[in-house]
Write a structure and sequence with these properties.
It is built from 7 helices and 12 strands. It is α/β, with parallel strands linked by helices. It has one domain: Rossmann fold. The strands form 3 sheets. An 8-stranded mixed beta sheet has the order 3-2-6-7-1-10-11-12. A two-stranded antiparallel ribbon has the order 4-5. A hairpin with a 4-residue loop joins strand 10 and strand 11. The longest helix has 16 residues.
Amino acid sequence: MKLSKEYDPSTRSAILVIGDPGTRKTSLAMQMPRPYIFDADNNLAGPVRHYGDKLKFAYDNGHVVSEAWKMAEHQIKYEENEVLKPQHRYLWMSKCLNEAARSEEIDTIVVDGLTSVSDFIQSEIKRQTGVADDATLRIQDWGKFIYMMKHLVTQLKTTKKIIMFTGHNLMDKNESDGVYKTFLAVPGQSKNILGGLFNDVWATYIKVGGTAAKRTYEYRIRTMPKDNDHRGIKDSMGLPKTFEWGAEPILKVLKR
C-alpha cells in the first residue's frame, strides 16, 4: 500500500485528442516530449511535410512493417517494408507499442488514430474466431471488442509515459428529438465509454471568422464540452476552456 503523497500524477497522463481531419491532431501529438508515433491511420506525411526536420520522433506504420518480423506460433513472417495483411495489424501494433513502452528513448506514446485501431481490433477478433476479415463482426463479439479497446488504453497507462490517442468526430442524429450530437468515431457502445479512460479529452477545431468576402481561419483547442457534445471533453491540467492551437500551454503543465 502506498500513501497519497507518493502518487505522481505526471506519470499517469493519458490524453485523447478528437477532431475533424485537418485540425492538426497529429501535429499536436508530434510536439509532445520525445514522442513515438504508431501511425495506424497511415497519415504522417502531411505533418512531416509541414514541419520538415523541426520535429524529432520515432514511429512505426500500422500497415507496413518497418523491420523483418515473424511469429511462428501464428505462422506470420514478413520482410522489411512488406505490407501487412489486415488480420496481422493488431499483433504488429501490440509488438510496436510494447517496444516503445520499454524504450528509455521515448517519453510519449502516440496512437494515431482510434478509428483505424478499432478496425485492427475487429480484424484480430475475426482472426481468432476464424471469420473472414471482410465479414461483419458478429453480435456476440462486440463485448470482446470493447474489452480489447479498453485493455489497450489501460495497459499503456501503466507504462508511466505520456499516452496520447487521436480520434475523429462522428455526427449522429438522435432519433427521439432529431438533434445531431457529436461522438467519438468508434463503433458501438465504445464511443460512450472510451473517453472515461483518459485524464484529458480535448477537441481540435478551426474557428472561422471575418466576412464572406474575407474569411479568417484559426486553429484552436477546446477543453470543455459544448451543447450536444458527447465526446467526454474534459481537462485535468487547468488549461483554458479554449486556446490557440499549440503545445506550449500543455508542455508547461507536463514539466511541473
